[in-house]
Amino acid sequence: MITMKDIVREGHPALRKMAEEVSLPPSEEDRETAEKMLEFLKNSQDPEIAEKYNLRSGVGLAAPQLGITKRIFAMHVTDDKDNLYSYSFFNPRIISHSVEETHIEGGEGCLSVDREVPGIVPRYKRIKVEGTTLENEKVTLRLRGLPAIVFQHELDHLNGIMFYDRIDDYKGKFKKELPKL
Ligand SMILES: CNC(=O)c1cccc(C)c1Nc1nc(N2CCN(c3ccccc3Cl)CC2)nc(N2CSC[C@H]2C(=O)NC)n1
Ligand code: NI
């Protein structure tokens, strides 16, 4: 099973690389990676298992966070209507997106970032996405809310982007230069 020691932290080169497309149908090795990532997310959200194995809770995990620069990520997240989005995707992509943006009030966290990084991370509010699942099915989904944010956060990992790269110093932008007293 994947535990925190398997997750690379910021500074590891895999987090800043462009991940490679996975050849389909996925190999046994890639399927196993995808399955173990989804299992990690489920374990991390189970209080007993998380406590027992000292897991940080997450709703998304991307293969580069395991040092595997392949276009694979898993998400296991419930939206505000209690719909569960539990997927491992091979070669996920955003087909289209709303102009409108959204964000998590509390900012974002990442299993590869062992610190709090305050700030608003702008994400598209609604996205139409595509990816190949563990069952080797090509699925198209329309996502909004937290599932949409998680998808974008994990897709960023496949492109070497960290959530804090997107935190706009909007406070700094409007700060009036105060006269030096
Ligand atoms: C909804 N967020 C907030 O409420 C949020 C709120 C305050 C501060 C921050 C900083 C927030 N931000 C944030 N909180 C999360 N978790 C909330 C707790 N949760 C969880 C915890 C325990 C059991 C089950 C679960 Cl489910 C796990 C997930 N996760 C992410 N991200 C950014 S996108 C990928 C995703 C990720 O998995 N990161 C590891 N950001
Ligand atoms: Ni992350």
From TrEMBL:
Its cofactor is Fe(2+). The keyword Protein biosynthesis applies. Its EC number is 3.5.1.88. The keyword Transit peptide does not apply. It comes from the Bacteria. Keywords: Hydrolase, Iron, Metal-binding, Protein biosynthesis. GO terms for molecular function: metal ion binding; peptide deformylase activity. Fe cation binds at C110, H153, H157. InterPro entries: Peptide_deformylase, Peptide_deformylase_sf. SUPFAM superfamilies: Peptide deformylase. Removes the formyl group from the N-terminal Met of newly synthesized proteins. Requires at least a dipeptide for an efficient rate of reaction. N-terminal L-methionine is a prerequisite for activity but the enzyme has broad specificity at other positions. HAMAP family: Pep_deformylase. Belongs to the polypeptide deformylase family. This is Peptide deformylase. It comes from Alteribacillus iranensis.
